[in-house]
Amino acid sequence: MLVWRFQRLNLGEVVTITTDKGPSYEAGPKLPLGALEIDRSFVSGSGETFGYGVCVHAKSQAACLKRLDIVGWSVDYLPISQMSGMQWFGASILFALTAALTVFVFVRARKRII
């Protein structure tokens, strides 16, 4: 279950949306209704992305953002349209693993009895 928890989001195709309206949180891109946000980062004028906390320890956040030439946001998300396909694909993977484990247990248990 631990592996599944971290890998289930890899079943979908991540969509990225960017803006160039400034580094304020309100200027960030608006996600479609029902979308699952995966990651949010700053975008510089050269197109390089920086993590959301890049200027956390700076004395002046505004000066830090200006020094890095931050011009907007980049957001990675999974659209709601992919969720049902991801769930069916994930369910089929879990069903196949359950069937394989069941067969292994029955074969292994049968060999020990005989």
Structural class: alpha+beta
Mean pLDDT level: 85
- Estimated helix fraction: 25-40%
Largest beta sheet: strand ordering: 1-4-2-3
Write down the overall geometry.
elongated
Please describe the biggest sheet, giving its number of strands, its sense, and whether it closes into a barrel.
4 strands, antiparallel
Order of helices and strands: HEEEHEH
Topology record:
Elements: H1 2-7, E1 15-18, E2 36-44, E3 49-51, H2 61-67, E4 70-78, H3 83-113
Antiparallel strand pairs: 1-4, 2-3, 2-4
Summed up:
By secondary structure, the protein is α+β, with helices and mostly antiparallel strands. The protein is built from three helices and four strands; from the N terminus they run αβββαβα. It has one domain (2-113).
List keywords for this structure.
4-stranded antiparallel beta sheet; elongated; alpha+beta; 3 helices
Account of the protein in words:
By secondary structure, this protein is of the alpha+beta class. It has one domain. It is 39% helix and 22% strand. It has three helices and four strands. The chain has a four-stranded antiparallel beta sheet with strand order 1-4-2-3. A hairpin with a 4-residue loop joins strand 2 and strand 3. The longest helix has 31 residues. The chain starts with a helix and ends with a helix. The mean pLDDT is 85.
